[in-house]
Amino acid sequence: MPAAPERQCWPAEAIWEAVVPMLPGFSVEVLPQIDSTNSELMRRCRAGRTETVLLVAEHQSAGRGRLGRPWHSAPGSSLTFSLGLTLAPGDWSGLSLAVGVSLAERLRAIGATGVGLKWPNDLWLGWAKLGGILIETAGLGADRYAVVGVGINVGASGGALAEPAGGAAQEVPPVGLQSVTQASAPQVLGAVVPALVRDLMRFEREGWPAFAQRFAALDLLKGRPVQLSDGREGLACGVGAGGALRLQTPAGLVEVGSGELSVRPQR
Ligand code: BTN
Fold first, then answer.
1. How far apart are CA 263 and CA 259, in angstroms?
2. 10 Å Cβ neighbour count for 117?
3. Whose CA is nearest to atom 11 of ligand 1?
4. CB 133: neighbour CB atoms within 10 A?
5. 57 CA: nearest ligand 1 atom
6. How far is the CA of 251 from the centre of ligand 1 (A)?
7. Three-class SS string for 59-119?
8. Are 199 and 181 in contact (CB under 8 A)?
9. Residue of the CA atom closest to atom 15 of ligand 1
10. In the chain, what is the greatest distance between 2 CA atoms, to the nearest angstrom?
11. Whole-angstrom Cα distance, residue 53 to residue 60?
12. Confidence check: pLDDT of 24 > 50
């Protein structure tokens, strides 16, 4: 029988202490394995359990990415977690970009200085995908339960070209996966979660405008020729109101929403 993978030592208590003053009722759960942390929190939500919780999985057997793609991750070489909480911002537009800003800034602060954002919310290191964000919401009205799912490659597993997380190979053929090579998954988790909660609270109060300049400082596409998954091409001109990608095309300036499209830089 194959040996069970070694469990990691997670800073659950330190995270709880940092977060609970901002989010009363907050709890931290670390599981050795689950299909998907996002799926689990959405299942709990449908069962009426809209918990304020950080759910970390050491391994996901059916991780999900944006646009229905799978998200593959190997134990020890990736950090996979979801934060479930009720939010009531005046305007939800730009939430996933704001999450990307929060994560990228913290990763830079712990030494991954080259981390940037590829619209709408992919974390890239240089020209390789380092991680991604999948946000799902449930409920009607102003208050919605939000599940903020994050996958980040850590450890020395960078360059795994064969089956990159989130189908990055289809998206950006010439590059492989990168990783935050100096940090373990528990270290990255401890570094990003308190700031992420702070930024989500700020998003709830102030919305996307509070993050627009911070995004601009991390925007890897700005000024670059890009191609959208629907075939349109143009020059990326930053991000407009609500987090839409501004694209200068032969037909004029267009704004592209993040819902159904992916974008890749042309080189
Ligand atoms: C993407 O870039 O397509 C988004 C990837 C999001 C992956 C994370 S891993 C933790 C959480 N659980 C999931 O099933 N997906 C998100």
1. 12
2. 24
3. 149
4. 23
5. 10
6. 34
7. CECCCECHHHCECCCCCCCEEEEEEEEEECCCCCCCHHHHHHHHHHHHHHHCCCCCEEEEC
8. no
9. 64
10. 62
11. 17
12. yes
Q: Structure tokens of 199?
A: 């930024």
Closest by Cα among 263, 259, 227 to 242: 259
Cβ count near 190 (within 10 Å): 19
For residue 148, the cross-strand partners are: 83, 135
The residues facing 226 across adjacent strands are 234, 265
Q: Which tokens belong to 75?
A: 């134990």
State the distance from the centre of ligand 1 to the C-alpha of 4, rounded, in angstroms. 24
Probe residue for ligand 1, chosen from 44, 71, 81, 122 as the CB with the greatest number of ligand atoms within 8 Å: 71
Annotated active-site residue 118? The verdict is no
pLDDT, tens digit, for every residue of 197-248?
999 999 999 999 999 999 999 999 999 999 998 888 999 999 998 899 999 9
Both structure tokens of 157:
């597993």
- pLDDT for 184-210, tens place per residue? 999 999 999 999 999 999 999 999 999
Q: What is the pTM of this model?
A: 0.90
- Could you tell me how many helices (H) and strands (E) the chain has, helices first? 6, 12
Helix, strand or coil for residue 259? coil
Length of the chain: 267
